[in-house]
Write a structure and sequence with these properties.
about 425 residues, alpha+beta, 8-stranded mixed sheet, 5-stranded mixed sheet, 16 strands, binds adenosine-5'-triphosphate, binds magnesium ion
């Protein structure tokens, strides 16, 4: 077996026990989005590489070193497995003129791909769900997106996820700030690491959220962007804070929370859990009013978030959350000439009536089949032998209740099974 092929590093299989939790989780998320008026979009996993270069920015971790990019040899174009879905969502909105009749609330979910060093909570294929509110200018949608996250954590029963909030102002305000920021970093250049030094001129705001303690120390004494903000920026930020307070959603202001690119503006936020170790951010979001124009569309505002499913599912598991598995109502046992065909058709009838039915497959005697029936977790075994076949009937044998078995006419079986399951 030593030459058996394994999964690609950093890419996980979700096996049935865990997939049940995922399925439940996805159902909760879909229902929650619907309650806030968000409608789903599905975009391809593959996009032109240029989309992400333009949308995420060339000087970012993602574009610099994390993208799965390859040349499609058949038509010699550079394609990339999506590392996130905001770019694709905005591309789709532009391509299909989604905003022609007004703003839209959209959501998505699915796998994303980033070539990172795999570790707990950090994978190369991972899953996100996210929302993009397109065409809304006011702080009320920023607040809505944040408040709905708070509601979701509550609904999922997750505690200890805290909110950090910041504003990065407008591109013009940041330009003035940026000059002072670069001056500050230059004065402390000896304390910066290679990454920070490289970004010092290309994307200095990203230096603020470096995870290197030495760099953090320099960032701590950096000029305060808040002092560079004009009236509109402040009004937006205060409006957002007012709505969060009204909704009783606590937050911490973190001036070092940033997105360094020109088409991001105003709100940035992160939801962080202390129960996940270093990979504690479960959700990040913000406003990107410049992105439509950046991608060649008519200018329109945008704000959204993306949340990491693996990290949230890990929190659910740690909180002891499991979902009951749907066990079969019935396990179909069949033995004797002609009984397989009879049982096979019967299974389809019962499933059409809404029952979960497992047909015994793979041969074996009556005893072995009954063992399988028991192990399946089914509530009853439905036994078809030559007698039953001849009589147009089935024997219904309870597997979990102290009730006698009974012979039931095939015609009324679906109904009888329903009644039986209700009674016991
Ligand atoms: P980090 O600082 O942890 O790398 P990020 O800023 O790259 O996060 P975003 O691009 O904002 O993350 O993605 C939103 C969310 O998606 C994150 O908060 C996290 O929950 C999840 N996420 C991002 N990258 C990964 C990954 N490689 N594996 C698992 N989840 C991830
Ligand atoms: Mg990252």
């Amino acid at each position: 077996m030593s030459d058996a092929i394994q999964a690609v590093r950093g890419m996980n299989d979700v096996l049935p026990d865990e997939a049940e939790l995922w399925l439940w989780f996805e159902g909760v998320v879909a229902d929650w989005f619907a309650r806030y008026g968000y409608r789903q979009v599905r975009t391809p996993l593959l996009e032109h590489t240029g989309l992400f270069r333009r949308a995420i920015g060339a000087v970012t971790d993602i574009v610099e070193k994390e993208m799965y990019t390859f040349t499609d040899a058949l038509n010699d174009e550079s394609l990339t497995l999506r590392p996130e879905a905001t770019a694709s969502t905005v591309r789709a909105a532009i391509e299909h003129s989604l905003l022609y009749d007004g703003p839209k609330r959209l959501w998505y979910q699915g796998p994303m791909y980033r070539h990172e060093r795999p570790q707990k909570g950090r994978y190369r294929e991972f899953h996100q769900f996210g929302a993009e509110a397109l065409g809304f200018d006011g702080p009320e949608v920023d607040a809505e997106l944040i408040v709905m996250c708070a509601a979701l954590w509550k609904e999922l029963g997750l505690e200890g996820i805290r909110l950090e909030l910041n504003t990065i102002g407008s591109p013009q305000e940041r330009a003035a700030y940026r000059a002072d920021l670069v001056r500050h970093f230059e004065a402390n250049e000896a304390k910066l690491d290679a990454d920070a030094r490289r970004r010092l001129h290309s994307n200095p705001m990203r230096v603020l959220d470096s995870k290197n303690p030495a760099v953090q120390e320099v960032a701590a004494t950096a000029p305060d962007l808040m002092k560079y903000l004009g009236e509109a920026s402040l009004a937006h930020f205060l409006g957002l804070q007012r709505l969060l307070k009204a909704a009783a959603v606590p937050f911490t202001l973190n001036p070092r929370l940033v997105r360094g690119l020109d088409y991001y503006n105003f709100t940035v936020f992160e939801w962080i859990s202390d129960r996940l170790g270093a990979q504690g951010t479960v959700c990040g979001g913000g406003r990107y009013d410049g992105l439509f124009a950046q991608l060649g569309g008519k200018p329109a505002s945008g704000v959204g978030f993306a949340a990491g499913v693996e990290r949230l599912v890990a929190l659910l598991r740690d909180a002891g959350r499991s979902v009951p598995r749907r066990l079969p109502d019935a396990y179909l046992v069949h033995q004797g000439e002609g009984t397989l065909d009879y049982a096979f058709a019967l299974g389809e009838e019962l499933r059409a009536a809404g029952h979960a039915v497992v047909l015994h497959a793979g041969g074996g005697g009556f005893k072995a089949q009954m063992k399988k029936a028991d192990a399946s977790g089914a509530r009853v075994a439905l036994i078809v032998g030559e007698d039953e076949l001849g009589a147009g009937a089935v024997t219904l044998k309870p597997l979990r209740d102290a009730r006698p078995q009974a012979r039931v006419a095939r015609a009324g079986l679906a109904r009888q099974l329903k009644d039986f399951l209700k009674e016991s």
